[in-house]
Amino acid sequence: MVNCQLNHVAIDVDDLEEAVAFYAELFDMERVPTPDFVGPYAWLQFGEEQLHLIERGEERPESQHFALIVDDFETVWNRAVELGAIGEAAGYARALPNGVVQSYIRDPSGNRVEFMCPDVDALPEAIA
User: Fold this and answer.
1) Residue whose C-alpha is closest to residue 48's, from 17, 18, 77, 69
2) What mean pLDDT comes out for the span 82-111?
């Protein structure tokens, strides 16, 4: 059996600096140096993984997404509310049968992002 782990996810965005600010604010990701590629792009570090943002402005499929496990669901939820990613038209939290809580939001370019927490019992009632 081969052991593997996620190294990075790359997504297209409409506005690179807006996307960098969104992910840095929402998930505390840190912009890191990038190789000299052609075109606007940025790499963001979170733990041992990275999110690569590429400014192409191409339309993304509706269901395409990536998921992040967060250690403080409430903080991320509240930041998403402040950024307008959760409100009347977007964002929700739901518990899965295994006790994991998930929420889907959209970034400023319309990319679907899932963030999850392994323990539904850790959520405050306002979110649960």
Assistant:
1) 69
2) 83
